[in-house]
Design brief:
seven-stranded mixed beta barrel; 3 helices; globular
């Protein structure tokens, strides 16, 4: 029996982006199609098979320790992005200000898709979900620069809605309008 169970849920690709690696900002520019290899998106800020550890894993490693890169991509749900914008009293929120790579429509409670879930596109491209992408100050700064007076509201508005980080398990390409199938681990929730 497979250890990954196909769900009835699919997500339509409604936005794609690229965060250039050579800039200090997390802003991503929109694209109609992206190509992903084992290192993620070539030339992107979070590209690479390995990365230097950061504050998110400081209880495990000294900052800067070389570790596997499971944060190659930032994926959010269109529905949760709309909810963040509404809570911030904005009509819309540009995914580029959040450093997004991919926005999907159609998967409920997307931020809490379990770690190790897979998203598979029509090219065979398969992304593995690492974990929830907790809200931080970087998007708040970008939002404040574009929508003065709104950036400070981001962190609380995005709590439990910030999406996930993911890495490429099988390379391929994605285009706007593609549909990604959701597979989840076939196991019960941890209950110590």
């Amino acid at each position: 029996m497979p250890t990954l169970r196909k769900t009835e849920f699919t997500g339509e690709v409604v936005w794609l982006g690229h965060v250039p690696g050579e800039t200090e900002t997390i802003r991503s520019s929109s694209a109609d199609q992206i190509d992903l290899d084992f290192g993620g998106q070539a030339g992107a800020r979070h590209a690479g098979v390995n990365r230097a550890s950061c504050v998110r894993v400081r209880n495990l490693y000294t900052e800067g320790t070389e570790i596997r890169n499971v944060r190659q991509l930032t994926i959010l749900s269109a529905e949760q992005l709309d909810a963040i914008a509404a809570e911030m009293d904005l009509d819309t929120l540009d995914p580029g200000l959040l450093g997004a790579t991919l926005i999907l429509r159609g998967i409920p409670d997307f931020t809490h898709v379990p770690p190790s879930a897979r998203l598979q596109g029509p090219s065979g491209l398969t992304l593995t979900v690492d974990t929830e992408n907790r809200p931080c100050l970087y998007p708040a700064r970008e939002i404040e620069a574009e929508q003065p007076g709104h950036g400070a509201a981001f962190k609380s508005a995005a709590t439990n809605r910030r999406g996930v980080t993911a890495w490429v398990e099988r390379p391929g390409s994605l285009a706007l309008g593609d549909t990604m199938k959701l597979f989840v681990p076939d196991q019960r929730a941890w209950a110590p």
